[in-house]
Fold this protein.
Amino acid sequence: MKLFTALLLLITIAMASCKDRSAKDLVLKKWSIKEMSGKGVESIPDSLKKKIYANATMEFMKDGKFISSGLDNSDKKGTYSISEDGKTMISTNEGDTYSDTLNILEITTDRLIMEDKK
């Protein structure tokens, strides 16, 4: 019984510590793409989707930079920022003169769901 109580306490503490982390902290890791949906996705051939799911990653660093790979034949680098409320990410690829704005729908230690405002 003591082991169960200790385990329950440990899980509760771990969950509480994740809940207190901001989106700016939670995003700091290498993410892989597991699913895409929405307008335009249906026009992507299944073979390309399969390749993206197998290879594509996006890594966000603490210094506000990111690297995405596996979407085409080269890595893409750029900068990003997350709004104070943790609900919006603005990213700019190196060499681009425009930024992409994404809604952050969900972010946890193991799940990031974003929506392109386009």
